[in-house]
Amino acid sequence: MTRPSAILFDLDGTLLESEHLYSDIGAEMVEAAGGAWTEADRLASVGAALPDFSVLLQRAGLARPTSEIVAAVVDHVTERMRADVPWRPGALELLDSVEAAGLPCALVTMTYRDTVSVLLDQSEALPFDVVITGDDVVHGKPHPEPYLLAARHLGVAPEKCVAIEDSVLGLTSAGRAGLTRIAVPLDAEIDSDLYEARWGTLLGRSIADILDVWRRCSA
């Protein structure tokens, strides 16, 4: 097979330069409660599902129920997303290239649907045939459920798909689901066993680059 069945994209940190929003908001909430948000906490939070992110905040000193923390984080992130949508360089061009090639495309994110809806409403038509959000799944990344659910909705086998991810948790999720993985980390250290290809940026990348990775991995 010279083409994958579908391309599945993460959102925060992969298509958007928005991963820091969660850590920034978490730090504000923890520090307002008298706790301390460390660099280790920030790194652990990259790509985390919101319930897991809430546990990190609680451990750092935020004594509030998980459901209350999740609701507050969603509200804050949605407000900031509404004010600005910081696409990573090359992200929209890559999405356009995938769409032009006629390949099915999905968004697989731990961001909640209320926030994702703001992005989709603000942006020009995006090529996602399926959108899986953090509140669609029981088990968030690094569990394989998000990617398995996306593949099921697309009607394709996960092992015939490519995932583009920035985080250890996201790449682990995609790998456990059987996808071929392209890592595009912003600042995280990623072990080489978590991806089949690594790009430093999306800038200048197109469907041709994805197909090249797929052919090499399928050979």
Task: Tell me the layout of helices and strands.
Blueprint: E1 6-9, H1 19-32, H2 39-45, H3 50-59, H4 66-83, H5 91-100, E2 105-108, H6 113-122, E3 130-132, H7 145-154, E4 161-165, H8 168-177, E5 180-183, E6 197-198, H9 207-218
Helix pairs in contact: 1-4, 3-4, 4-6
Task: Give an overview in words.
- This protein folds into 2 domains: 6-17 and 86-218, Rossmann fold (3-Layer(aba) Sandwich); 19-83.
- The protein starts with 5 loop residues before the first strand and ends with a helix.
- By secondary structure, it is of the alpha/beta class.
- It has 9 helices and 6 strands; from the N terminus they run βαααααβαβαβαββα.
- The mean pLDDT is 93.
Question: What key phrases describe this protein's structure?
Answer:
219 residues; 2 domains; Rossmann fold; alpha/beta
